[in-house]
Amino acid sequence: MRILHVEGGRHLYGGSFQVLHLLRGLAARGHENLLACPRGCALASAAEPVAEVHDMPMHGDVDPLMTARLHRLIRASRPDLVHLHSRIGADVMGGLAARLARVPVIHTRRVDNPEPRWLVALKYRLHDRVIAISEGIGRVLVGEGLPPAKLRLARSAVDFESYARPCDRSLVAERLGVEPDALLIGVVAQLIQRKGHAVLLDALPPLLDAHPDLRVVFLGQGPLADPLRERIAREGLAERVILAGFRDDLDVLLPCFDLIVHPALMEGLGVSLLQAASAGVPIVASRAGGIPEAVRHGENGLLVPPGDSAALGEAIGSLLSGPERRRELGDAGRALMVREFSIDAMVEANLAVYRELV
What we know:
Layout: E1 2-6, H1 15-28, E2 32-38, H2 42-47, E3 52-56, H3 65-77, E4 81-84, H4 90-101, E5 105-109, H5 117-123, E6 129-132, H6 135-143, E7 151-153, H7 160-163, H8 169-176, E8 183-188, H9 197-210, E9 214-219, H10 225-234, E10 241-245, H11 250-253, E11 259-262, H12 271-278, E12 283-286, H13 291-294, E13 301-304, H14 309-320, H15 323-340, H16 343-357
Helix pairs in contact: 1-16, 3-4, 9-14, 12-15
């Protein structure tokens, strides 16, 4: 099968990393990948061994010329189908281009942001199938009017073995600038409002009082970096809360965290949660979107209502005080990832949708 993939993201994390997993899995099965992505994006170089890369200008939702560029590529490369992987203009512009070229088109939806029913009715008419990466996203789509017959499920995956490694505490302490014996909480997420960093900051004071050795590390980048830094300084937390920025060494860092916290207000699934579980780290997260599919309450973590800082603090406190319970949840998380979130399962789920149309 010859598949043209379209990904509008510029950084190699989240959805773009899932695309890379899929490209590698398809190539290993003998399928031919083409990739359209923005010029200079990190995915382009990573995908070169497994895809014919076509980088081009992509300016998001305000780039109507993307339709013409993608249409020319489709006509020239003659794929069997087009798979649109992001909403950054690709969902509409790519859908129009594939329709004009009369090629089957699939769109993968990775976020649970609500959309107006009129937009759902118009936009998803362009797509032959819509793949949700979680049941939670699927429920949102159907609730907004997507015909259930168009919807398919292909959960995001994680390279389990990359994160299932021993902790090198001295190395991680040096990289993060913390004491080797510190009690570590990590938040792995873009620094944007819906990821809920502010909710965790609201919950921190009693936790910091109860655990003098506690350090909280925000791993990620985004527009809230400066406001978060200002709040942390204003509240005298600079010695206890660290903004570590975007990291490409999560496979080394994650196994040394005592707890991962994900207080998101909205979330499609949460790839960082899959990575944390693979590393054997217990999780406290919001019961939002597709998160309960990655974090099973009482199995590999604890779930709390979104935006409830008191409940979040109580759940975190219960695990910080119970190292044996943390180990049990961490072990169960590893088993869950192997059982339900393997890359092979994700690739086969996507292939099943392709075969419906080709």
